[in-house]
## 1
Amino acid sequence: MGDDCLFCKIAGGETDTDFLMETDDVVVFRDINPIAPVHLLLVPKRHIRSVNDLTEEDSPVLSALLFAARDMAVQMGVDATGYKLIFNVEKGGGQEIFHLHMHMIGGWES
Ligand code: AMP
Ligand code: ZN
């Protein structure tokens, strides 16, 4: 956790990444390699490796991620048209950065 983790650095404000939202628990920024017109990453500030590593004490962080998704959908104008929320879990699930994050993808023409 921390030193070698890109998303810890981003969430800690150590990079020039622009946040679309920041709360006590979560930051939201655009994916650098978007696969859809809207492709955001919703990232807890706390270092958690993946969904596999969640514990009961992470419950508030999970709530914060979903509420951030709800609000970002409105902000990005995709709440009505729809979007996907995806967690990639471990290598076989496509996870490349081992700091928990949720993808929000959407904005396709409907
Ligand atoms: P995953 O495959 O679920 O681990 O997703 C990691 C995502 O992080 C990929 O979609 C990358 O495009 C994205 N990514 C990697 N580095 C950055 C960065 N510096 N800023 C924003 N997104 C990034
Ligand atoms: Zn981290």
## 2
Amino acid sequence: MSEPKKQHHAFEAEVDQLLHLVAHSLYSHKEIFLRELISNAADALDRLRFEALSDDGLYEGDSELGIRIEVDEQDRTLTISDNGIGMSRSEVTSNIGTIARSGTRAFLKSLGEEKQGEVSQIGQFGVGFYSAFIVADRVTLVTRRAGGKQGTCWESDGRGGYDLSRVNSTSRGTSVTLHLKEDESEFLEDYRLREIIKRYSDHTPFPIRLRSHDDKGRPTDDWDTVNQAKALWARPKKELNDEDYQEFYPHVAHDPNPPLAWIHHRVEGRNEYSLLLYLPSKAPFDLADPNPQHGVKLYVQRVFILDEPDKLMPRYLRFVRGIVDSNDLPLNISRELLQNNRTLDTIRSACVRRVLDLLEDLSTNQEETYGKFWAEFGHVLKEGTIEDIGNQARILKLLRFHSTQDDGDALKVTLDDYIGRMQDGQEKIYYLTIDSLAAARRSPHLEVFRQRGIEVLLMTDPVDEWVMDWVREYEGKSFQSVAKGELDLPGADAEEEPEEETDEDPLCAQIQEALGDEVEAVRRSSRLTDSPSCLVRGEHDFSPAMWELMRRQGQPLPKPKLVLEINPDHALLQRMQADEARFSEWARWLLDQAVLADGGVLEDPGGFVSRINALLAASSDPRR
Ligand code: ADP
């Protein structure tokens, strides 16, 4: 190896910040650095195998792929090498030493928020390589891309920057040498390394070989394979236990948390494939990202083909992780061909079916686990009612809601529960969409429902409104927002019906006149028992929260046509009618407080406050 010239490069500010955190945080499992480096090596081997499908010259006569680990006690180094795809010089600069991904920023932010942070999270954010600095004070990476001539050496002490130099002759792939910190000698011990590899990387589908030493501690030419090195998903289910599945999970999911549940099947028949799919226990940081980093990986005959989240799972199941390995797809299939491939489509819908089976099973047999799932991913699964019409009925059965019949925070009520409790003659499933549960529970729209003991589902996810608008009905019962349109309650007495002709009612007409075109109409309410007023929207208008959301996103919707419903029996309305001089202030107040109770935003909050104060001052004035 000759080193013509070293070039120093500064780290991006964020890398510097990250490395500082990595080097100075306290870790409960610092040995995870090895898992991260082994994962990177395995990915590089996967990528070589994939690229070599169309150009087997890339093997350069060496197609025995594997990972080697060796220790030098004298120098206190630990080296992890692979004969995978390697990196060109420009790949080194763009992959190592810069932070190209938003994930890393998210990671830094999460560390910042939790101070020390739980650094076992590191792999999830695509900063796996930097975890080497947990145990090393200097790291040297030497790499040569398959098919390339020249190698590159990257070296850094993790402070400020790194040196790059050319390496003239080096083997294909990457080797990462960690110069261990003073107090990290345990990672020089053979038994300790074996233990870590068995624990975290037993199912890495490439052999991980550890170099043996003789009695005097000198390295020998013996390389002992430490892991099982078999693709876990290709092994029969009966040979595997829960720990096997749990151990494999972080490699495929890039998630340090344990999985919540999994399914493993080998499908035979017209299409032959294996699937191993996991439900994570925690939402990944990029769950809301339109282009998430990871998804279900596609393999063909054990060869990794791609990890593109939208290829094997629909968007509403984007949290599912795992592997599908097909025996029928051609190995050299191109990404373009995958777009419209019938075999892949069949596999994809079978996977969706299996995931829904799993969710159904959890929801009926493991309520607590399902509750955890729902808390993390329920709002995403809901999107499926819109996205996957074919499975809409199944997905609707899986939904969980709050309702006026529960008072806890857990989301428990299913649509079937609701239907089971419907009153005689009740035809509709009543619901309220509002932006918080507290606001929902106090909403004036619920008053008459409470009085009559009719259950109302309370929905607080932004997506609920889209879902309700789209789905319209379940098991022949239509959905009805309690805040929209006319109510048509079961068993309503004729005398309690709202008065249809609003303009014949002098009080309503007077309020309408005071409010001008702020409201479409004013009418006596059949909804209210305790509150003075509420706002009612048209059947297809958006709720105030959604309206506000769209406005902030720069997509203003037309103002909804609001109807102000009043409760003339309310003490304050009695008072209002006696206070001719301030009638229009009272009218304004009726409208504003109804907007607020709906979770809406007042255009002129200051005006509201001063009007209220004036009314209070007048009513408490002993001279009045
Ligand atoms: P991640 O593995 O999550 O992408 P890392 O920080 O561990 O994040 O690695 C960044 C990138 O560096 C990888 O995506 C890969 O392109 C490259 N890389 C890391 N290790 C290797 C390796 N052993 N061989 C080839 N490329 C590697």
